[in-house]
Amino acid sequence: MELTAIQQEIIAYMEKMKGKKKLKEKDIIKKILADHADLDKLGVRSELRKMIDVGKLMYSYGGGASSVEIPSEEYLKEKGLI
Fold first, then answer.
1. Among the four given CATH numbers 1.10.10.10, 3.40.50.2000, 3.40.640.10, 3.40.190.10, the one describing domain 3-79
2. Confidence (pLDDT) at 11
């Protein structure tokens, strides 16, 4: 599976779960690995980290635990990413 396809699957899963559950990094990795047995954990994790580094995703903290979210347009404008 190509790297961009992994990133698209991560975004699609996160959009599906938005508002239902705060996703931790391990939740996302487990879901992608469950759907694609040919991938390895380190590959999925590195793609997730790349997305966080470029601003497609972000870490948030609330309720005593950190989670990964899709940043809002307002946040992206504030950080100068769009």
1. 1.10.10.10
2. 92
